[in-house]
Amino acid sequence: MNILLICAAGMSTSLLVTKMQEAAKERGIEANIWAVSADEAKSHFDQADVVLIGPQIRYKFAAFKKEGEARGIPVDVINPADYGRVNGAGVLDFALRLKK
Amino acid sequence: MKRVDLVYETLREWERSGKRWVSAEELASVLGLDRANVSRDLNRLWREGKVQKQTGRPVRFALACGSTAETRLDRIAKQQPSLAAAVEQGKAAVLYPPKGLPMLIVGETGTGKSMFAELLHEFAVAVGRFPRSAPFVTFNCADYANNPQLLLGQLFGIRKGAYTGANEQKGLIEKADGGVLFLDEVHRLPAEGQEMLFTFIDRGVYRRLGETDVERTANVLLICATTEDPESNLLKTFRRRIPMHILLPPLEKRTLDERCRLVMQFFQEEAVRLGKEICVSANAIRAFLFYACPNNVGQLKADIQLVCAKAYADYVTGKKQAVSVHRADLPLQVQTGLLLEKKHPRSASYSLPHRWYAFSPHGGEADVGGGPVESESVYGAIERKYGELKERGIAGDELDLLLEMDIKHYFSQYMKGMDRRIRNRRDLEKMVTPDVLALTEAMVVYVEKKLGRRLAKKVTYALALHIQTAINRLRAGTIVSHPKLNEVRAAYKHEFAVALDCLHLMEEKMHIDLPIDEAGFLTMFFALHEERTEEREERVAVVVVMHGNGVASAMADVVNQLLTAACVYAVDMPLDADPKHIYEQVKAVLQPVVSQKGVLLLVDMGSLVSFASFLEKELAVPVKVVSAASTPHVLEAARKAMLGYALNDIYEEVKAAAPFYVREPLWEEETADQDMLAIVTACFTGKGSALALKHILETYLQLDEHMWRIIPIQMADVKEARQTLSSIAKHFRIVCVVSHICLDERIPHFPLEEVLSLRAMKEIQALAGVEEIHVHMARELAGHLRHLSPTKAIHAIRAALAAIGRELGLDPDGRDMVGLVLHLCCLLDRLLSGEKTSSGQGTAIECRHEDETLYRVVKEGLFPLEQRYGVCIGEDELCHIVHFFRSLQGKQDT
């Protein structure tokens, strides 16, 4: 399963990526999780099964949603509480739920 | 020939033929006149001082013998013809029946007003108006001008219990009964006192302070003196009661002859005082004749004394063989007399026949004494005051208090005078010998090192002069005790210890034994510095920073013009300016003018508020900021600052005038890592209900108990409660307060009833949730960030974002910000490690043009973070944040 995280410059998300990877490993889930900045996001859509957006670039959500719909990929904004807590497991669950 | 003259002439003839002491009877029979008439004439002559009389029956008269017949007053009139009119007026007032007239002596500083009053007293005694023992009581109204109560008490006396702790005390009027009361600087007498005084003039009665039942009487000849124009400085009713106005002309209105006589006389007096012959060159005397001497005879005398003291010091140290004064020995200011001489209309006709003038310590009768304006050293002034107060029967604590007020006053006056007289070291060299100067400078270095602070330049100057006089006096064998040595020692322990060291230094360098009292005086110089830095000249610096070209400058100009002083500084902030540059400008403007009294920053928009805390740290002085300031605020601030108000007072006043002053966020206070969260509950009614509230909150809120404390406090006293709150804030991040009234506008507040009815629970829960998220964030980031302390960084970022929100009129939900906070933490950390952060697509310009205001607010809002961490947030990063806030704006609009 390929999970793409998008944030302003791909910085804060890297920490979240690590946490999510740890959570996936614990549960024995095969997951490819990576983070990119908003500017370079488009070119990564094709490799993704689900796209998650950092709450600080919520303002770009509409644009990314369109991209996702065009490819049939679910796109959503990460819950600020989970994002703020860097709750890897929580965000992973969120991604899994979206994919279903 | 008038009858009275006939009587006088006859007396003189008889005296020549050896017949003295005749009765009116004898005279009357020889002259064939009525005895009663002759007796009247004799008594008149006696009153005029031309005749003396013997007690006993019959009363016998004789010519007043030689010099005593001529009172000093008469002599003054002869030597100083410009004073002749004044002398006549004075005599007339003293002799005016039945009790003499009250007088007002008007004259500039140093024209000899108190000396004149003393001579009038002497005259009154000489003519028998008063008995020999008649008191002459002097009181300077300026001495107590700061304390009208004390002043009136001094003057009229105090009844026991008139005010708390008041003891029965005689007034000066009572002490002057049967003599003269001289009120110097009477214009400093408060109106109330003037009124009390004219009741006394009218009816000869007065009351002690606090007395209502008794009226006291006293027979006092009142002589007042003032340097001011009586028309504008005294009550009309008071002026009317003193019909005799005696004008003492200033030095410049006197003739050269008169001035020359004064100069000669003063040198003569110094020769007597020193017990050494003083040689003065003609040029030096000419300089004294012509130099500008604004403080009149008093200054002339003081300057001559100073010159003689210096000449004496040169003689003692072996630099000169005799006590001699040349032109070059004179202070620069006196030397200018030789230049002014050329311009003086009468200088050509005024020549001094000799090249040298020697003043012998024995020759001539120097008219010593009565000089009111001695150039007083610290000693003289204190000693004199001490004696005066003691004489008046003031003792114990009150004496100490008065003396302390006085010494302090004297010292600050000394300093003030110093400032006018001495502007640089060169001036000082003219007055102080090189060895004293060297010693002083060595002492200052030592003192500054020991006390760990700088002494004002002025203190150094004053100290040098003081040491010079001290040494001169001690060498002359005069020892002066410091009346408050023990108090000074106790009050300024540290300074006193240093002063003792300085004493040793002085003793070593000057080969002189010094009494320990001298350490007391030195201590006051060292200690004075501290008070002065707080009290005098230092003011709160007022700076205006405004957006737009020239807005701040214009505002400052208006205020400076209105106050006719350059007291407001301005920094303009063009719209496209980088806040960092502006900040540096503000700092540069302030650096040279800032004092410990601090800085008041007046800004137009809240985004500049953050300057305050950085300035505070960098300049190490307190800084307050008021936003949304307009011209009236600036004016008010500047006015108060000029008056020497403290920063906090000005701040409170101006803040009250500026409705939208921006509060400083509590979180910005850099305290210990506030990792624990708290809700504070406060009740008027004691801890009981605060505890009950705590239970309700614990029951209805879902809180992570490892992070939270609910702290009940008592709010009996609001001020106390605020203090408690701020001490809690040192260890906890106070998320909200539940109380009757809002204790701190910076902390969310929920009214009691909202909580009791559970209506507020949802909101509190949301607030709590956001806080918990941030605590978790900090914990997660702890292992991730390399350069930042997560808790502090999160607080700073949240404060900055909240400020931007406020400036934009948004009230963003804390949850909306969470992502951005995390983002900025990572961004700052990367910037600190020097990594490149931006992918850089050049959209920056675009986003700036889309919304200039938003861009500027965000840029300024991030300034505190940039400044704090010393980084620069790139344009692209800025744009993300601009977009974020724009989306929030959009969200709120819809």
Number of helices of chain B: 38
| Morphology call of chain A | globular
Kindly report the greatest chain-chain contact and the residue count on each side.
A-B, 27 and 32 residues
Low-confidence stretches of chain B: 364-376, 419-423, 530-536, 661-672
Tell me the number of helical segments of chain A per DSSP (H or I, 4 or more residues long).
4
Report Rg of chain A.
12 Å
Give the CATH architecture of chain A: 3-Layer(aba) Sandwich
Task: Kindly name the structural category of chain B.
Answer: alpha/beta
Distance between the termini of chain A: 12 Å
Overall shape of chain B? elongated
Please name the CATH topology of the largest domain in chain B.
Rossmann fold
Q: Looking across the biggest beta sheet of chain A, what order are the strands in? A: 2-1-3-4
How far apart, in Å, are the first and last alpha carbons of chain B? 117 Å
Strand content of chain B: 5-15%
Major pleated sheet of chain A: 4 strands, parallel
Task: Give the beta-strand count of chain B.
Answer: 23
Overall pLDDT score of chain B:
78
CATH C-level name of the largest domain in chain B: Alpha Beta
Rounded to an integer in angstroms, the radius of gyration calculated over CA atoms of chain B is 39 Å
Strand percentage of chain A: 15-25%
- Share of helix of chain B, binned: 40-55%
